[in-house]
User: What shape does this take?
Amino acid sequence: MQKNNISNSVIRRLPRYYRFLGELLNQDIQKISSRELSEKMRLTASQIRQDLNCFGGFGQQGYGYNVAELRREIGHILGLDKQDKMILIGAGNLGRAITVHIDFAKYGYELSGIFDSNISLEGIEISGIKIMHTNRLAEFCAENTPTMAVLCIPKSGAKEMVETLIGLGIKAFWNFSHYDIHYDHPEVAVENVHLTDSLMTLSYAARNQHEHSAEDAAAEPEIAGE
Ligand code: NAI
Assistant: This one.
């Protein structure tokens, strides 16, 4: 399978395909045509064919897609069938919520260590994992070689922590810290998460939908009178 030329926008759609195909399997749907898939996912059929053709295409003319096979293949492309080690830094409200609610093993990672600079948290368990003080990071990383870190600490300490972690072999960051890692470290993989970006986007949609509805309502009598 060729993965090299897959565009970023296609990669960004793959998790949605993966999730959706999982829902189909839960409903015991074993095969689906690109037309049905497009209707359910609200993408065009040609968009779906184009996306899936990027890595060889899985559909068969007149048959459609084998749901389980397609999902397995997308999971493979996303690396979900691996189990690399990751650590989480910052065992506060956010770090705890992420640890409790996300089953990393399903997404190709084993959460192997949780660290916090607050010594009073040491030894407290979250989801069966004991919080360690950050002064144990170097020893832990040397022994366990995690490759990814989830960053749930304030922006103020993030730059220093990122430099430490890169020095310890971390190559990818799921970054909640609001520190722009890529600006200083373009060499590592980063996925920034800003929950409030999503809220602001929704805010725009909500307010403009209202304006559109008002405009549409105002325009309707004219249209009706034509
Ligand atoms: P919190 O105050 O409950 O927890 C922060 C934890 O990080 C504390 O346990 C603290 O001891 C630890 N910590 C601070 N500096 C550290 C360092 N250098 N190394 C290791 N541990 C350190 O805060 P909360 O609610 O968990 O949020 C954490 C951060 O995530 C905040 O700065 C917040 O702005 C950010 N955040 C980002 C969101 C996003 O969508 N990106 C959403 C919510 C919070």
Q: What stands out?
A: The longest strand covers residues 109-116. DSSP finds nine helices and nine strands in the chain. The pocket of NAI is lined by residues 89-95, 115-118, 134, 152-154, 157, 161, 176-178, 193-195 (CB under 6 Å). Residues 220-226 have pLDDT under 50 and may be disordered.
